[in-house]
Amino acid sequence: MKDNNPKPITAHFLKAYLDLSDTFIYQYLRNLRLFRPILIVEETDNLELFPLEANIHCLMDVWERWSWSWFRGKYDRFLARRDPVEALAGRILAKEKPKLLHAHFGPQGVWTLTLKRQYRLPLITTFYGVDMSKLPRQDEWYDAYQQLFAEGDLFLVEGNHMRSRLIELGSPPEKTRIQHIAIDVNQIRFAPRQFPEDGIIKLLLCGRFTEKKGIEYAIRAADLVRNRYQNIELRIIGDGELRPQIEQLISDLHLDEHVTLLGYRSHPEFTEELRKTHIFLAPSITAADGDSEGGAPTVLIEAQASGLPIVSTYHADIPEVVPDGESGFLVPERDTEALAERIVHLIKHPDIWSEIGIAGRKHVEWNHNIYLETQKLESLYTDLVEGADPPVNKEVHDELFASEAH
Hints:
By secondary structure, the chain is α/β, with parallel strands linked by helices. It is built from 17 helices and 13 strands. The chain has helices at 23-31, 59-65, 68-79, 84-96, 106-119, 130-133, 139-151, 160-169, 215-226, 243-252, 267-276, 298-305, 318-321, 336-348, 353-367, 370-385, 394-401; strands at 9-17, 36-44, 55-58, 100-104, 123-126, 154-157, 176-178, 201-206, 232-237, 259-263, 279-282, 310-313, 328-331.
């Protein structure tokens, strides 16, 4: 049968397709032009929110469809030396015949190493944050990463801070490249902000309720701002394990009329909140357990694209994503007074909002444009596969699938 889609295939490995916070992965997958993606995942979620013209292979679904006795009877010799879920992934690779493997997050890169060896395919691993800040503090992950660094072909990070950190962990400098988080700028409506007619300044924060997001400091800063300017409202999108503590802090500071917890919101709902907002906050910090943004939150890119002035922190790669004094202001981590001072400065000087917003939009268009960044990624793909036609491992293919047609 003639192949109606002759583009070379890239196999992408994720734990789940797709968490609400992983929109940056979706943007790349849906904008590939020279390569055709397939996905190999452990579970699926939010498929209606992230439609994709690609084969999505859910290993757990396949596992549940097969009875253990049938599976073991057919693959007994193979399973004697391989993990059964890994065997399922191998079966998919043998059928799809990708030219390259792309693991998203460090643990997926470690898991994919065996498949790389077995099928002799190049492997790219992209690191995003907790996988290179918190996990390497555990000896087992640190050791596993050393093997990944030795055998993997390329390692991608969001910015220079992440690159330096990954190299410190053992990643070869020549294999460690910067691939920016990017968005479809055309999907974000730009509007210069003006002082509202009703005088109510709306601040927006978006993130999981975890320590590294610094939500506590945003709330405390809002309390300080309220003492000088009563007409403010802090709106927070997200949820998580720290919600009880956050609710208690809001109550203790008597901020119930000034802070609104919106819970999780879809991406269209988030962009609508951007439209109604005047100042965007992202007071990220390094958590006590080492967890950090690694790079920078995608919401900072989207907020700038919409024209919002930013107040954030000197944390991870945020200074590259938000140029201090141009598209916003940065302050030290955990410095509540500095956060409040920058917010008050913006409230007092609405005449600079438009200039800041234009600067942020231009910065995103040049540095975080998904169309430009996808071209860069596909160039890396091409460099790894050009001039090569890596076959699937014939011995394994014959052993497993000789009877597939019967």
